Amino acid sequence: MKLLLDRTLDRFMNDLRSLYVEAAEAAYLSTDFEEMERLTEIVLKQAKTLLDKVKVYEVCIQAYWAENKHLEAVKTALRVLNLLGVVFPAQPSLADIMLTLEETQLVLTGKAPSDLIDLPTMTDPIALAAMQIMTIVWSPAYITVNELIPLIACKQVNLSVTQGNAPESAFAYANYGLIICGRGQIDTAYQLGQLALHLLERFNAKKLKAKIYVFCNFVKHLKEHLRKVLLYKLEAYQSGLETGDFEFAAGGAMGYCMMSYLSGRELVELEREQETYNQAIAQLKQEAFLHWHQIFWQVVLNLIGRSEEPSCLSGEVYDERKMVPLHLKVTDRTAMLHLYTNKLTLC
Q1: What number of other Cβ atoms are within 10 A of residue 77's Cβ?
Q2: N or C: which end of the chain has fewer CB within 10 A?
Q3: With 80 as the cut, is the pLDDT of residue 173 above it?
Q4: For the chain, percent helix, then strand, then coil, each to nearest 5?
Q5: pLDDT for 9
Q6: What value does the mean pLDDT of the chain take?
Q7: Mean pLDDT of 49-56
Q8: CB 149 within 8 A of CB 137
């Protein structure tokens, strides 16, 4: 009888923790960050095991990203990953990156991207939890400590090859493809992107669709026309809205507008779309993507004559004089890249 009562109590507590985690996620999605913090604190105090805490840490990391607390998101993820047995240096060196890339090349020796789709399914709960945390921390790491990005990609690929594919493996292969594309391996990178799309379908991983579609686009335009790739950005936006992945819904919207500009769209028509998507991204409370979007929107405004200083990004929607100190404060190097690349174009 006592054993039965204990099991019943354990099930009840597990169900209660799950309810609190879902409530915390709902609070984050509705941008009630204060309520989210209150609920996550309750779960963290009551949880008995690390795996009980992982889901709530995921919510915390996503909330930190949305609140522009990028470094806090990275620090939280690194702490959790360390507990899960995945250790990354806080400030990776070039030597760390080169060694990691070499290790992954060895793991993949003799394996074509098409071979990886038939790997067994990952079952180890610790490895699965680590894969999830590494996927969620990608964006804040990219902004604040982007030297971590190749380490994350390689570790996820290594885990997938040695322990089997997980839904997050689709993200891993697309991410790794982006990295080796930068090393000139464009054909292999494209094949890894196609592999990611096949795995997405095999696992029916709807919650990852927005992420995968955004990432595949980083390579697809090297083999397919840019205007064809635009459709994937819109799919990412719509999928993110449907599944609650507001981060990559915003990324899809921002990317669609940016690529539309780069593909040579008529600017007056594009500017109207940029205004519409600006409202959407603002409602999703994704500040980083909002700032990047507004840089490109201001560029278009400059080009159609709605700026007093054509070579300066200071106008209706974006003012570099006010925004540069903010970008520097949160170490948003991507914003600085977009700003100065576009200023060069305008000049």
Answers
A1: 26
A2: N
A3: yes
A4: 80, 0, 20
A5: 46
A6: 88
A7: 82
A8: no
CA quadruple 257, 262, 266, 269: dihedral, nearest 10: 10
Tokens for 153?
């990609």
Token couple for 173: 């292969």
Residue 2 main-chain phi, psi, to 5 deg: -60, -40
The answer to whether 240 and 214 have CB atoms below 8 angstroms apart is no
CA separation for the pair 237, 36 (Å, rounded): 24
Give the H or E element holding residue 196: helix 186-203
Select from 158, 168, 178, 169 the least CA-distant residue to 85.
158
Instruction: Please compute the mean of the pLDDT values over residues 26-45 and round it to a whole number.
Output: 68
Tokens of 333: 């190097």
Cα distance between residue 235 and residue 229, in whole Å: 10
Within 10 A of 79 (CB to CB), how many other CB atoms are there?
Answer: 12
Of the segments 12-26, 36-50, 290-304, which one has the largest average pLDDT value? Answer: 290-304
Look at 18-32, 49-63, 80-94, 275-289 and tell me which has the smallest mean pLDDT.
18-32
Distance CA 199, CA 333 (A): 32
pLDDT of 15 higher than 60:
no
Rounded alpha-carbon distances, angstroms, from residue 341 to 184, 277, 338: 22, 22, 5
DSSP 165: B
